[in-house]
Amino acid sequence: MKTAFIGIDLQNDFIKKDGALPVPNAENIVNNVNNLIAKAINTKHDLLLTCDLHDNDDEEFNIFPPHCIAESEGAFFITDLKGIALHYATSFSKSTHDIFDEKNGNSNFKEYLYNNKITTCIVFGVATDICVKAAVLGILKRGMQVILVEDACAGLDKTDEAIGEMVEEGAVLTSTEAICI
Ligand SMILES: [Zn+2]
């Protein structure tokens, strides 16, 4: 049994109210995210961070407003993550919502989970109904357990539906407090 903490897309454009593609209420999860990350570091668990990253003219901007453009402030991890957390974490960039996507995801993420024999993933971040859901379903599909920290996630508009879908596929819901005890 080996557990990893996985933070999804904790970047300025998604988390900050004035970001390019703000997720409603995302600023409210920052405290919980900080607590989870501190827990991961203090208990010496693996910490993986995904990161959405696009070129100026990315085709995803046909669907979503431009966001997380490489080198821009909006693409950076939220400032709470600077310093020790970023030093400690392993990050994985992708240019589509699904980290497991063959073409625009990041195969290093999957390799990391396999190579480090991760059996359980504690997942949190944004957006619940898009990137979090894709990561969770991808992890479950590969035979690992998922514990979704519901109060450290924020979604766009289909949050409840997405949570229902993840639970149906085997994800277990928990709270930040339960993890950080
Ligand atoms: Zn994107």
Features of the shown structure:
Rossmann fold; binds zinc ion; alpha/beta; single chain; globular; about 180 residues
Please state the structural category. alpha/beta
The CATH H-level superfamily is Isochorismatase-like
Task: Supply the number of structural domains.
Answer: 1
Major β-sheet profile: 6 strands, parallel
- Distance between termini? 19 Å
Beta-strand residue fraction: 15-25%
Radius of gyration using CA atoms only: 15 Å
Distinct ligands: zinc ion
CATH topology title:
Rossmann fold
Low-confidence stretches: none
- Per DSSP, the total helix count is 7
Molecular structure report:
The protein is an alpha/beta fold. It has one domain: Isochorismatase-like (Rossmann fold), CATH 3.40.50.850. The chain is built from 7 helices and 6 strands, in the order βααβαβαβαβαβα. The chain has helices spanning 12-15, 30-42, 84-88, 107-115, 128-141, 159-168, 176-180, and strands at residues 3-8, 46-52, 90-94, 120-126, 145-154, 172-174. A 6-stranded parallel beta sheet has the order 3-2-1-4-5-6, sandwiched between helices. α3 links the parallel β2 and β3. α5 (128-141) runs parallel beside α6 (159-168). 41% of the residues are buried. Bound molecules: zinc ion. Zinc ion is lined by residues 52, 54, 60, 67-68. Zinc ion binds next to loops.
